[in-house]
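Researcher: Structure for this, please.
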Amino acid sequence: MSTIKNIAQIASICIILVCSFSAKAQQAFHNFGFLQFHSEASVGFHLDLIDDGFFVNNRGLTGFYSDGRLTVSGTSNPVFNDIEIFVDNGLQLDTWVGVTNNANFIVGNVLTSKSTLDNYLNFVNDAFFTGTGDENHVNGYVGASNKSMITFPVGDGIRIRHLTLTSNDINSLARCAYFFEDPNAPISFIGNFNTDITATDDLQISNFEFWRLDGSESSVVTLTWDDQSNTSLFAESTDNLLVVGWNRENSQWESLGNSGVNGNMNNGSITSNTFLPSDYEIITLGGTDELLEPFSVLELDNYFLTPNGDGVNDFLLIDGIETVPNNILNIYNRYGVLVYSKLNYANEFNGRSNRNAVISRSSGLSAGVYFYVLTVNDTRQKFQGYLYISDSQ
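Model: Predicted structure, token format:
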């Protein structure tokens, strides 16, 4: 048996011993010094990992396994060869973690804070990923080091929303995250990107989602859309779709072009012209409305909800909604935060948020005044009014 293989086995045994001790003490594996996995090492973490030492140049397979949530944190940044993610409630990264070969998503998302660019899953050199999908992706930031092309496996925790970056030169570091949030009032970080401030009058901007892309090389990007992107609200056809970005210096939305588009208005992808990502704070889908009638805005009734299960005013019931199936309902709290969004609304809102970034998601919204906008695409009309939610009859 070679010395390398012996070292690999010793590393595996040491991890098991330290983790077993940690389970009784601090519920984490804590690296203070020099640690390295060699050759054919296969190591599984079932506890949180705290890296305050040197934990790079690893080989073999490192797995994260738990039916709860695991966290990687510390003052240093572990870099693994192959990693395997089987964590039911997500693998939380409170620092950046590197992968030099393959990240295999089996169960659960990788989670990072969306308020900072400092924490991300970093794909280094020729690293790649497998197994991603709507339930297995990165809800937060993905990094790409020493790459000229990468498809970032980002999403909102429920849906994967790829962004592909193709650069003219190698990026020392590029980072990307997806936000299913209104760019006019983002929830995850401080900023305001008014979709009415555009470089040209005919430019329309999505207010449903955006990507934050950080990169220093001239590039093109390919964005995807699905039925929750509601592309028909800002473009009449796929030919009118554009990639758009908020220019940092000019503080306005600008067209980043359309060099290729595939799909239909419900699902597809679009590629931009060449631009410099660092010039733009966020990017999203947009379009031109040359052929579209402007939306008329009408006041609708104010509504009162007492969603307490007594059968009276438990749901937001809009008369005649069944006759306008091509609609979207957005509900905002008094701070302008989108708390509920439903394509083809059919009287199912019962006072619970369906937004991933809202703390009270899947639980009752607090009592108070809310503002709603019902957009009917077929007739180019927006109906708006107030909604009062009470926890009493």
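Researcher: Any notable elements?
Model: Helices lie at 3-24. The first helix runs from residue 3 to 24.
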